[in-house]
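Fold description:
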Amino acid sequence: MKNKLLLISLAVVLALSVGLVGCTGGDIGPTPSAKIVFAASVSLTGPLSEIHNLAKGPVVAQWLLAKPTMTVGGTVYPVEVAYLDDGSLLNNMLENTDTIITGIKAGTYHFLLGPTCTAYLEAQAPKATTGKVVQMTMEGGATSLFANLGAYKYSFINLSFSNWFQIPVFAKLIKEAHTAYNASDPCNAYIGYQNDDHGLEYMGEAVKYFAKEGITVDGTYPMDAGDTTDIGTLISNAKAADSDILCIFAYPEHVFGAHAVAKAQGYNPKAMIIGPGGNFGVYGAPFMAGADAEGVMCFAVANNKTEGGTVATLISDLEAALTTWGVDYWGHPCYWAALDMLKEAAEAVGSDNDGAGFTIDQDAYRNYLAGNKFSTCFGETWYVTPSVALNSTTYSWTNAQLQWPVPATKAGLMNYKCHTGEIGQWQDGYIEIVGYAGIGTGGDEYDLANYDVTDSFVYPKAAW
């Protein structure tokens, strides 16, 4: 494959407001560098490009504008990002990853940022481990990696995802709201899912947690990337089942038009959750869902009213810089926090080689991330690793089971107990963070003490 390399200088970043970042490292003596370079294989083209352009791309740009340098050993280094386009093709991503790991060992690059989606993240993790290079992910979840966290000690996952801890909160919220609405009416749901790691993980966790809450699943329907006709069949099936809840665990190409198809077919579920897609501020724009976004649910961590840490200020700043249409209320706070943790680790364990240039040992970098707590937009933030698997009787982990410091042999996940939200709902043109009674008190089975509800959950949602 011929790699398509996009290396953007700070001057261009400032001119275009497209941010990128970087650093070096490796265990075979990289050449000292006059700058720090982050590298990532991302989907600049192809069907996944919508995710990169609305998620990682804008927030990395803004982070770099806010923090364009790092100081290591008394030397100030400019930072930038090298993006290698994978064209939304898995094999290209893997080849790009090889190129980046080689570059990190040579000193051309310094830090590996994760790829664009869950399937790619999980496919890249073994390469990061074999290459002994830290994989600092942004987009993508890791439910399927839970069984192998001990195999991927160089992977650090930063986004909230299905059972970390979105679906547990969603299921409990829906059950509580439906019971209050009509306690004698059983609650049922229909699930459409992307036929890849992302969709399969969400569908599997939803089936499990819905059963825990007594929500019946009427059916599940797989959808293939690139075939948006699938959404019509999904809506028809859900309408025929008269499902109260419609879940669409798929990528923007499917979810952006789901409201229009449901409206056209005359299907009005009491609640509808979509993602990723509904978490992007642009979803509520007049040229997209517009008024039809009202009541639609999504995955979201914070908004500009969230209490806790400085996340509300961060969201407000991003809204000012990108407009509300450009903010990802699910990913952007997590990615910003991840970059702040990366920066602290780089400045703590990197070397300026007596002024000769920047290098960083990847094991020292990995161990710093695993063994320290950081001050981020969420407040105190740190990585953990579950020491036990979830089962049919334990649907959450105790504090003792979330290992910190992260053992030297395991991957790290940004602690879901640091999150300030999991579920959002579009209300009056804005994403509000919603939750069930008592969430945020730290007293329920999930112990989500950091969770901040910004408005009451509306159920059922208004008809189209």
User: Anything to note?
Assistant: The longest strand covers residues 75-85. The chain has a mean pLDDT of 92. The CA atoms of residues 11 and 76 lie 17 Å apart.
